[in-house]
Specification:
Blueprint lengths: L10 H22 L32 H8 L3 E14 L6 H4 L9 E15 L5 E4 L9 E5 L5 E10 L4 E6 L11 E2 L10 E6 L7 E12 L9 E4 L11 E3 L4 E9 L7 E5 H13 L6 E2 L2 E4 L3 H7 L7 E6 L4 H5 L6 E5 L2 E2 L5 H7 L6 E8 L2 E8 L1 E2 L30 E5 L5 E6 L14 E5 L2 E2 L3 H10 L3 E9 L2 E9 L1
Organism: Pendulispora brunnea
Protein name: Do family serine endopeptidase
Subcellular location: Periplasm
Length: about 500
């Protein structure tokens, strides 16, 4: 999004550029009179003079971007979203309302500040529906859409999905049969290194074309739990939000969404497959209903994989299980590793929310789970995903340390332990350079060692000392959440 005040930055530089050309132009005119007349171009072999500015043909093996843009550009639209912000203010002290107040009180007036945001979108069907980013039209009171041929229409928001940052608009009063519709491709098949073209409305300049390649896929930038961005070096700037990312077939493979302000040539686009999955719901109900499993999960690194009995890091490690939730009712446990959902493999933890979200609430799925180094199947009926609620912790782990009974016996892992309120042992200190350094932190509460519960610091120290050489697996409470930590000690 871009406030309309962004145009101001271009005025002075444009004047400077124009003025800079003038002396060179005068010099060129002055010299022109001193030059002899140019000789006529020699005739071609066919007896006809060749055109002096003939366009060369597109070289074999290079993309004909100009033809591609001419084909797809009409389906791209510019979006202006207006949001009126009302503020109450007291009038200037010398206003008559202040000098002669009614009923002894100064008269208040409403001040309306009009905020504009600029973005991009593309037409997805002949009924005048347009896809864009949800943040482009967030809290908009009015939305105006400008087509490539300069026709303008009002639009209404018919659906929003904040989790994916997607929105669908509907043009008002547009002749549907005359609308150019974008072709939606398949982002799953896009390859890293493939050429892509972005078209959008950067800085309110209107239809602007940039080209680059797909730099990476499956990027997570912390926008939501469903992050699965296409990274591209095609230039994307404020105002490009919601615009299409085309492949060389002229099909939309992504929706330009985010940029990294610290780096050049690093932009992110939502895969078009994500839009295609939720578009029917956005058109019919205006929102998206997703399935909910009811667990917290964490990534599995090589050390954890070794401790859990995996051949390599894969799957999603279950930390907490919501009491009474779908996973709890199905018997899923903390420490289980989810490897598959209905035969869809889970290669890393961030894939699990996206795979589960593809299933509707109430649907039944089968999980392939690794438990105690053996696999089993668990059938779960999904609940409806609710908006996340901030977790302030249960109070136990964030309470002050219990009175120390002195440091526990040496553990061999470079940590000092004390008894924790409610059971387990609280990490008091971590020795720099020790095996536990950067894996455990003061305040962590160890509640299990190699799947065996520990009630206090003494039990924890004994369990650590008795652990066989190699990797030990700890179950830890950190800031109210369960986390597994694997530590190597050779």
């Amino acid at each position: 999004m871009l406030p309309q005040s962004g145009f101001a930055g271009f005025t002075s530089s444009s004047r400077f550029s124009s003025l800079a050309i003038v002396p060179a132009a005068i010099l060129a005119l002055g010299l022109a009179g001193c030059q002899p007349a140019a000789a006529a171009p020699p005739p071609s072999s066919g007896g006809q003079a060749s055109a002096p500015f003939a366009s060369p043909p597109v070289l074999s093996g290079t993309p004909d971007v100009a033809t591609l843009v001419a084909k797809v550009n009409p389906s791209v639209v510019n979006i202006t979203a207006v949001h009126d912000v009302k503020q109450r203010r007291i009038p200037f002290p010398f206003d008559f309302g202040e000098v002669f107040p009614q009923q002894g009180r100064p008269r208040e007036r409403d001040s309306v500040t009009r905020q504009r945001a600029l973005g991009t979108g593309f037409i997805v069907d002949a009924n005048g529906h347009i896809a864009t980013n949800a943040h482009v039209v967030e809290e908009a009171d009015r939305v105006r859409v400008r087509l490539a041929d300069k026709r303008e229409y009002d639009a209404k928001v018919v659906g929003r999905d904040a989790n994916l940052d997607l929105a669908v608009l509907e043009l008002q009063g547009a002749p549907n049969k005359e609308l150019p519709v974008a072709s939606l491709g398949v982002s799953e098949g896009v390859r890293v290194g493939e050429y892509v073209v972005a078209i959008g409305n950067p800085f309110g300049l209107g239809h602007t074309v940039t080209m680059g390649i797909v730099s990476a896929k499956g990027r997570s930038i912390g926008a939501s739990q469903y992050d699965d961005f296409i990274q591209t070096d095609a230039s994307i700037n404020p105002g490009n939000s919601g615009g299409p990312l085309f492949d060389l077939k002229g099909q939309v493979v992504g929706i330009n969404t985010a940029i990294n302000p610290q780096g050049k040539g690093i932009g992110f686009a939502i895969p078009i497959d994500a839009l295609k999955e939720v578009l029917p719901q956005l058109l019919t109900t205006g929102h998206v209903a997703r399935g909910r499993l009811g667990v917290s999960i964490q990534e599995i690194d090589p050390t954890l994989a070794k401790a859990l009995g995996l051949d390599r890091p894969r799957g999603a490690l279950v930390g907490d299980v919501d009491p009474g939730g779908p996973a709890d009712k199905a018997g899923l446990r903390s420490g289980d590793v989810i490897l598959e959902v209905d035969k869809d493999q889970i290669d890393d933890a961030q894939e699990l929310p996206r795979v589960v979200a593809r299933h509707a609430p109430g649907s039944r799925v089968t999980l392939k789970v690794l438990r105690n180094k053996s696999t089993q199947s668990v059938d779960i009926t999904l609940d409806k995903l609710k908006d996340p609620v901030a977790d302030n912790g249960d109070g136990g782990d964030s309470a002050p340390d219990a009175p120390r009974k002195g440091n526990a016996a040496p553990t061999g892992y470079g940590i000092a332990l004390g008894d924790a309120p409610g059971g387990g042992s609280r990490v008091q200190r971590v020795q720099p350079g020790a095996p536990a350094d950067e894996l455990l932190a003061p305040g962590d509460v160890i509640i299990e060692v190699n799947h065996q519960a520990v009630a206090n610091a003494t039990e924890t120290a004994k369990a650590l000392q008795a652990a066989p050489k190699g990797t030990v697996l700890l179950k830890v409470k950190r800031e109210g959440h369960t986390k597994y930590v694997a530590i190597d000690r050779n």
